[in-house]
Write a structure and sequence with these properties.
Chain lengths: 535, 264
């Protein structure tokens, strides 16, 4: 640092500024540490970035909206420019949303940018989670970061819900009514919680202001904190990379953050922002003026939540009706409680998966090289089963639209989906696992015998053979570099006793690894090559 | 307890039930008759005898196989006695009648008869018994109050037809039709006659002025596309979510693949 001072004097303005900052806040040290972080190159590593950038767009556009939105439920007579609501009685919140849409310059564009980027935020976070799951990026040391990321997904849902409930139009009011109903369906404490949340009987006069505080302060602050933890952990752990020659669990192969990734990521931010702005300028989202102000009596056909709440709405629709128990003075309405339980259980399973898999494999090593999904057949199959379960619930939120648009019977769509909710995940599991194993066998075949060229040649002694083109070593590496687990036996503990826990664990281990295709080892490879020479 | 029971012994009398039923019948029957009187107050016909005669021939040739030779109805189709000219005009001019195929509900399609023929069919059916006539007034959307119409629409119609009339699902394969193309006369006739699965909104239920306000609201949303750009068929959040996943995230993933591709 001392000779940096000497050099900087002849470096002009930039060097002078850099030196000024370095001497005061140690920029050089930070840049040296942070700027030389290496990031691997792969398109699927950019999905989390998409989520981050759409969150930045959310913050920017949301701040713009707070200048005009008024979170009050005081009734007013609308006197704005939208004809079919002129003279209607509505809340201040709804009137100010209409004003943002029709009278604030650029207001509608910003509303649409905000809403579209919210949809994109949760969608890209979800896709990023799927990438992390199917490549096994949640394994040690990243289990906790998986939970943090899961928390971000849930916070995204919370941010979205509190946001689209703010305009106090008919659609958002219907959504709140459903939440109110679900809360009231919780035995014993439900009605108290509802009364506390809404400040009395639904809808009350305070819910919009309360949701507003959550939406613009608490939820975004939590998201920011979680994003900070999420990214900081990525820096600590270093990024994972896909297998390839020279890529190991103790290194990262890629380009440094400075200058390559800063430029790439900076440019990518503007691409994401550009896509959002393009869509927001051309496609309507949540046309609140169509729905009218909230009134508890009407419900419009086609009332659905935004997509990320859809799976919970679907659970409500698919739940079997007429399942009710009366205990004392309480009615346990299973068509409300079942979706709640299913939703919570599914979320817990997703959040806890890394710990479960680590327990089953007993693998305490650090993993920085990602799995190809086919090389972890059971995990991939479980992932597909989970995705299918979620997807059926998600589609369940659109039963009415499926019925009208495909000319089907609503009742049959509903019962078909109830069956699909159970059957499809099982089918998905079996098909995926078998497909993965077949792909692994194909990989073995290619590594050992090369690619079929389709060229038939006749040998001098008259035999016909097809020429197999051997794989380049660079290519072969990707196909043979994966960890192979074998089922473990239940072992006795120090006291010489086999515990139930150990038996369960070995049961799961068998479930995971009984059907497996081992990677090609050196001996097999050598034998295959020797064999070829005999030909 | 015993004393209390004695006090209420008028309620326990064997005649009590009969008296209550009688009172109930008087109230409901009288009310129904009064309401009916309001509905079918006007029944002057704009049709000539020739219209009725030709209408009868058209009916025998095209409708009688299901509705019966005297429009008395069969197992396949309901009686048309008393349904009125408005009902015939609506069903035939929107192509729902004659039906193309039996199913949960009859589909709309291009009309199978000329305006003249529809008028003659309506004349014949109207001649059988009094019923709602084809509306001629309260059809001008510019004279209605669209704010009030919007409110009435959301309260009475939106639960099946969607907030802006994009349509919606009913049970067992039936549906509430989209109103995005419906004309003022069709909207009025549908409310007046309650075609297929739709309930009747008679003049005691929604006054002609109310109907005109609803027409005014629907015409406004038909003629004024969303200020925010493409409406995604007005299907709401499901269409928005699919658009976000397929086009936004799909587009961005395509860009990431392009960015992550190795230059050859």
């Amino acid at each position: 640092m001392s000779n940096a001072t000497a050099k900087a004097k002849k470096g002009g303005f930039l060097a002078g500024t850099a030196n000024y900052l370095d001497e005061r806040v140690g920029v050089a040290g930070i840049l040296k540490e942070f700027g030389r972080k290496v990031f691997p190159d792969h398109w699927s590593f950019m999905l989390g970035e998409v989520a981050l950038y759409s969150f930045l767009v959310l913050l920017l556009s949301g701040t713009f909206l707070t200048f005009w939105f008024q979170p009050a439920m005081t009734p007013v007579i609308y006197d704005g420019v939208y004809g079919p609501l002129k003279g209607a009685s509505m809340s201040v919140a709804y009137a100010s949303t209409l004003d943002i849409s029709f009278e604030v310059r650029g207001g509608l564009l910003f509303r649409q940018i905000h809403h579209w980027s919210a949809l994109l935020f949760v969608a890209s976070a979800g896709l990023h989670m799927l990438r992390v799951f199917f490549t096994g990026a949640f394994r040690k040391p990243r289990e906790i970061n998986w939970v943090v990321g899961f928390g971000l997904f849930v916070l995204g849902m919370a941010g979205g819900f509190t946001g689209y409930s703010l305009p106090d139009d008919l659609l958002s009011g219907n959504g709140l009514r459903i939440i109110d109903g679900m809360i009231k369906g919780v035995p014993w404490i439900g009605s108290y919680i509802s009364s506390l949340l809404f400040g009395g009987e639904f809808p009350g006069e305070s819910i919009v202001a309360r949701l507003y505080s959550l939406h613009i302060m608490i939820v975004p602050a939590l998201i920011l904190v979680f994003v900070a933890i999420h990214l900081f952990t990525v820096v600590i752990h270093k990024h994972t990379h896909y297998s390839g020659p020279g890529r190991r669990d103790d290194n990262v192969v890629g380009y440094p953050l400075m200058p390559v990734y800063v430029a790439k990521a900076g440019g990518f931010f503007f691409i994401v922002f550009g896509v959002i702005a393009l869509v927001a300028a051309n496609v309507t989202i949540n046309p609140v003026w169509n729905y009218g102000g909230y009134d508890p009596s009407p419900v419009s056909a086609g009332t659905q939540p935004d997509w990320y709440i859809g799976w919970l709405d679907g659970a409500l629709r698919l739940a079997p009706t007429h399942l009710e128990f009366v205990i004392g003075h309480n009615t346990l309405s299973m068509n409300i409680l079942l979706p709640l339980v299913v939703g919570i259980l599914f979320s817990v399973l997703v959040a806890a998966y890394p710990f479960f898999e680590a327990w089953v494999t007993g693998d305490k090593r650090e993993h920085h090289v990602l799995d190809r999904p086919r090389n972890a057949p059971t995990r991939t199959a479980i992932g597909v089963a989970g995705m299918t379960f979620y997807a059926v619930l998600w589609a369940g939120a659109a039963t009415d639209l499926l019925a009208t648009n495909f000319k089907l019977s609503l009742n049959q769509v509903l019962s078909t989906m109830q069956i699909m909710l159970i059957v499809l995940p099982i089918l998905g599991y079996i098909i995926t696992k078998r497909t993965c194993l077949s792909l692994q066998r194909k990989d073995r075949e290619i590594v050992l015998h090369g690619r079929e060229t389709g060229r038939i040649i006749r040998m001098p002694h008259g035999e016909y053979i097809e020429v197999h083109e051997p794989l380049e070593e660079f290519e072969a590496w990707k196909l043979i570099d994966f960890k192979d687990y074998a089922p473990t036996l239940a072992r006795p503990n120090a006291k010489g006793k086999i515990t139930i826990r150990a038996r369960i664990r070995s049961g799961f281990s068998k479930f995971y690894f009984e059907d497996r295709v081992a990677p090609v080892n050196a001996l097999e490879l050598k034998a295959a090559h020797d064999h070829k020479e005999i030909h | 307890m015993a004393i209390k029971r004695n006090k209420n012994n008028a309620r326990r009398s064997p005649y009590a039930a009969i008296l209550v039923i009688l009172a109930g019948l008087l109230v409901s029957g009288g009310g129904y008759a009064a309401a009916n009187a309001v509905v079918s107050a006007k029944s002057e016909t704009p049709y000539s005898a020739q219209d009725i005669k030709t209408g009868n021939q058209l009916f025998l040739a095209n409708c009688a196989s299901c509705h019966g030779r005297n429009a008395e109805g069969t197992k396949a189709a309901p009686s048309l006695i008393g349904v009125g000219a408005a009902s015939v005009d609506f069903q035939v001019s929107t192509g729902r009648m004659p039906g193309a195929a039996s199913g949960p509900q009859l589909m709309d399609k291009p009309a199978q008869f000329t305006e003249q023929q529809i008028k003659q069919l309506a004349a014949y059916v109207a001649s059988l018994a009094p019923g709602p006539a084809v509306p001629t007034s309260n059809l001008d959307p510019t004279a209605g109050n669209s704010t009030r119409g919007g409110e009435l629409f959301r309260i009475n119609c939106a639960m099946c037809h969607n907030a802006v009339g994009a349509g919606g699902a009913l049970t067992e394969g039936k549906w509430a039709a989209s109103l995005r193309e419906a004309s003022p006369k069709e909207i009025y006739e549908a409310m007046l006659t309650g075609p297929q699965n739709m309930p009747v909104f008679n003049d005691a239920n929604l006054t002609p002025k109310d109907k005109q306000d609803i027409i005014s609201y629907l015409t406004y949303v038909q003629n004024n596309p969303s200020a925010g750009g493409d409406e995604l068929a007005n299907l709401g959040p499901v269409a928005e979510g699919l658009f976000a996943w397929i086009f936004m995230l799909g587009g961005i993933v395509a860009i990431t693949i392009w960015l992550g591709a190795k230059s050859n």
